[in-house]
Amino acid sequence: MCEECLRQDKLIKAQMVDHIKPINKGGSKLDIDNLQSLCNRCHALKSAKEK
User: Fold this and answer.
1) What are phi and psi of 40, to 5 degrees?
2) I need a labelling partner for 27 at 20 to 30 A (CA). Which of 6, 19, 43, 47 fits?
3) In angstroms, rounded to a whole number, what is the distance separating the alpha carbons of residues 47 and 2?
4) Where is the HNH domain (predicted)?
């Protein structure tokens, strides 16, 4: 399930594994605490905000 949608009480299937803190900003590539599952929409919105 998409973790962002779950915070909004929506059940949407996740299609992406996302780095919470981007790797290019010091986030760990393989640390499970830096990973979250997101749907395509939430991943696209998060990526756009990070640019």
Assistant:
1) -60, -40
2) 6
3) 15
4) 2-48
